[in-house]
Amino acid sequence: MTENQTRTPYDAEHIVIVELGHTVWALYIPNPDQAKNPRAVADNITAPEYADVEVVATAIRCYKTEGATASGWFISSGSDYGSEGYPNKRAMREALRHTIHGYFTTTEQERPAP
User: Fold this and answer.
1) What is the 8-class DSSP label of residue 87?
2) Which among 72, 37, 58, 45 has a CA at the least distance from the CA of 100?
3) What are the start-end ranges of the H helices in the chain?
4) 94 contacts 84 by C-beta, under 8 angstroms
5) Residue 112 pLDDT > 70
6) What does the DSSP 8-state code read for residue 71?
7) What is the pTM assigned to this prediction?
C-alpha cells in the first residue's frame, strides 16, 4: 500500500475486541485461524507468528482513588493519547468503534505513529 492510499473500510471479521481486566484491546488479526482464539493472540502478542497482528486501539480504565488524575475509560491509538475520559464501558465501546473506523479510513501519513 502506498502512503497516499487509504485502507479499505475495516472488515469486522478482522477486528477483535479483547478484554483484559481494566484494559481493552482492539486487535486487527488478518489470519482467520488466529482470530479464532483472540485471547491467545493477546497473551502472546510479541510472538513471531503474530507479527502481522496490529493493536489498533487500547482502552484503559483509570481511577482517581488509585492515583490517576481522572477516573474513566481512556482510549489511545498509535501515539494519539488525546482521549477524554468516558464514564462507563458503554460510552467507551462507542468511542472505541469510532477510533477503529478512523484507523482504517485514514491514510498512512495521517495515522499516528505506533
Assistant:
1) S
2) 58
3) 32-35, 38-43, 89-105
4) no
5) no
6) -
7) 0.75
> What pLDDT, on a 0 to 100 scale, did the predictor assign at position 107?
58
pLDDT at 11: 59
Nearest to 54 by CA among 75, 36, 78: 78
Question: Rounded to 5 degrees, what angle do the CA atoms 105, 19, 7 make?
Answer: 15
> Is residue 25's pLDDT more than 80?
yes
pLDDT by residue (tens digit) across 84-94?
Answer: 789 999 999 99
Give long-range contacts, CB 8 A cutoff, 24+ apart: 92-96: 92/24, 92/59, 93/17, 96/17, 96/24, 96/26, 96/57, 96/59
